[in-house]
Specification:
Structural class: mainly alpha
Largest sheet: none
CATH architecture: Orthogonal Bundle
CATH superfamily: Hypothetical protein af1432
Number of strands: 0
Strand content: under 5%
Helix content: 55-70%
Order of helices and strands: HHHHHHHHHHH
CATH topology: Hypothetical protein af1432
Shape: globular
Number of domains: 1
């Protein structure tokens, strides 16, 4: 496994911009930290973190063409918000270019941008790690979200989705319906924990 991971790092270093590569390494380390905290498989977490942005070196238009070429179905939402497509195509690349057969890893890559209702433990770990990794510094709520990541994953997912939707709506950006479904799901869990209906 160590050799596979080292080979992947070298491959990604050659494909991604230096900044994106640093982000990728950072995400993989945070994935492992969260995996340790929540008793999840470390190798799965590291691989999913390493490959979560493996398609990010391609432009949105190029990803759309590649999805069409490989018969990867695109939703209307994905065509309206192509920035999320690197996750779907990245999952395809992880499987067919990098030989990852573990469906949990592929799903974690697939859903790391939009999230989805009822995410698996690994999906939540990658989704959260992508947002809180140390090189991220734009979101104002990072200190709260970072501490929540090591207390309650569902609450952390809720905070990230809430913040992301507020940001996108504030910028008048299109919001993928899967993100809205994910938010509704995790908001319900949040309310239940607080004893609200």
């Amino acid at each position: 496994m160590k050799e596979i991971i080292l080979n992947l790092r070298n491959e990604l270093r050659g494909k991604l911009s230096p900044q994106r590569y640093e982000h990728t390494i950072s995400v993989s380390f945070i994935c492992m930290a969260l995996a340790m905290k929540y008793d999840s498989d470390l190798d799965q977490a590291e691989l999913a973190g390493l490959l979560h942005d493996c398609a990010k070196y391609l432009g949105d238009g190029e990803i759309i063409k590649k999805c069409q070429k490989h018969g990867i179905e695109l939703t209307d939402d994905e065509r309206k918000a192509p920035a999320v497509l690197h996750a779907k195509y990245g999952a395809w690349m992880a499987q067919y270019k990098y030989g990852i057969e573990d469906s949990e890893i592929l799903d974690a890559i697939r859903w790391h941008t939009t999230g989805r209702p009822d995410m698996s433990l690994l999906e939540k770990i990658v989704f959260i790690a992508d947002y809180i990794e140390p090189r991220r510094d734009k979101a104002g709520d990072l200190p709260v979200v970072r501490s929540m990541a090591f207390i309650d994953l569902d609450e952390c997912v809720y905070l990230i989705l809430k913040s992301t939707l507020e940001y996108l709506r504030g910028k008048k950006c299109f919001v993928d319906s899967m993100s809205m479904k994910a938010y509704a799901y995790y908001e319900r869990i949040h309310r239940e924990k607080k004893g609200e209906q």
